[in-house]
Automatic annotation (TrEMBL):
Superkingdom of the source species: Eukaryota
Entry keyword Iron-sulfur: yes
Protein source organism: Silurus asotus
InterPro entries associated with the record: ComplexI_51kDa_subunit, NADH-UbQ_OxRdtase_51kDa_CS, Nuo51_FMN-bd, Nuo51_FMN-bd_sf, Nuop51_4Fe4S-bd, Nuop51_4Fe4S-bd_sf, SLBB_dom
BP GO terms, sorted: mitochondrial electron transport, NADH to ubiquinone
Family named by the database record: Belongs to the complex I 51 kDa subunit family.
Record's protein name: NADH dehydrogenase [ubiquinone] flavoprotein 1, mitochondrial
Amino acid sequence: MLACLGCPGLSRTLSSGVLHLPNTFVSRTPSISASISRGSQVALARYNSTAQQEKVKKTKFGPLADQDRIFTNLYGRHDWRLKGALSRGDWYKTKEILEKGVDWIINEIKVSGLRGRGGAGFPTGMKWSFMNKPSDGRPKYLVVNADEGEPGTCKDREIMRHDPHKLVEGCLVAGRAMGARAAYIYIRGEFYNESSNLQVAINEAYGAGLIGKNACGSGYDFDVYVMRGAGAYICGEETALIESIEGKQGKPRLKPPFPADVGVFGCPTTVANVETVSVAPTICRRGGSWFASFGRERNSGTKLFNISGHVNNPCTVEEEMSIPMKELIERHAGVFGCPTTVANVETVSVAPTICRRGGSWFASFGRERNSGTKLFNISGHVNNPCTVEEEMSIPMKELIERHAVKFSGTSSKTAAEHCNVGSVRFVTSAAGGVRGGWDNLLCVIPGGSSTPLIPKHVCEDVPMDFDGLIQAQTGLGTAALIVMDKSTDVIRAIARLIEFYKHESCGQCTPCREGVDWMNKMMWRFVKGDARAAEIDMIWELSKQIEGHTICALGDGAAWPVQGLIRHFRPIMESRISEFQQKQQAQA
């Protein structure tokens, strides 16, 4: 059956459609299929036939141990320059990796089970092997997609900002695997600090002889260049990116021909994601089987996840593939990435006294559900601005009149006589990752803004990997989780995303240019409720007319958020329409 493996957010490394057979990937494009070497086919067959036998049936995934993390400077706590990178193991035995040759590198990548980390999920080893056909005299190029324009996604910029040498070394190893002589890193124009750090790392690598002529002393020549874009979301699509590098307007090309045949400057090209390229050297050093030991079959390895939205600690974290979504959020999106309770200073301070004197003593003050004592601040137009401890439920007038008068020392009854020293009832909030606790969760967009959202009950046990999220009628995409709690107007949230896609459409394809514009207009009417219930089915059909009918995946990425909204939150849309109609009738 035909499976959609294209990245929902233009994936930035979108490969051709793929025939998806159990445990097997076969290109549907004859010219590319024919280009796979016999050795690559044998390696792939060996991987497919032994995957189930070699992998133990794991039932628990994550947390990832520190020694298994590939990106060890993700938060910029250490030196990101060459000296620091060398101390963390980068560029270690790179010469030996290069000297082992093309077939060995590609085989290790295939054994690892690495799939494109930009969202497409295409098997990386197979994709790289497409370049290893007999040379026709044209040079080959590696293009690294560092545009990262998907809303909610910020993993690649962390690599370029804090671990740039991982990317530079990855370019060298990946380039060697496909016989390329140069890499172009296409970086988003707004990423000024990231591009600056990356250029410094490239200059350091040139100065140390790690790239350039006779890279790492291997006899292999390889150059790395940084190309800056101008912030167009469409340039995240691989052929639009190639057009931009060539100095043209960034608009997707028709396929075929595919970039592996006719890419940048008309030469064979592979476009790969930053994370995909960056992990290659570590896989080659530690072995493909080591990488494949994480995650589950066909979803192996480690992965960078972004967690943003209504969480206590928005973060980028490296975790094992297939970790349950709930565990990922609760473990890493709390304060310091740990399960967390946020409590007030006064709340914490009273706990020992309550334990010493007893909870019933504390509960004897105030009234039911408002028990204990409390610190009150009184300021403004009073004679004696003060902070005073009083019994809960004291009348406001008495509180002000008793304590905010100018102290004369003649009071017959002091505040202390009115209030035994105690404290406030214990109130906590924001336990775990989701703001207000897991029960306050409404929904999650799991893979960047272009993947369909899923509601709380689906998030409970869904694994964060390609296959698990496809079964949940969404996708891993860029693995950028956008968390929404119950305070969210989910209709408005999706409308805002559609407005973004309308703005970023290049206008080349009629279904996208016209369809997304109409979806945008309809969604903002749904926000107000100024629509008919039948229009929900209408916008669903409109999204289906856009999906799969455009040159690139931007059309799909615009359609899927609307489909996810209707699939899971149709009652809210109908309720909004009903409320608007009732309000209009009442005003008539």
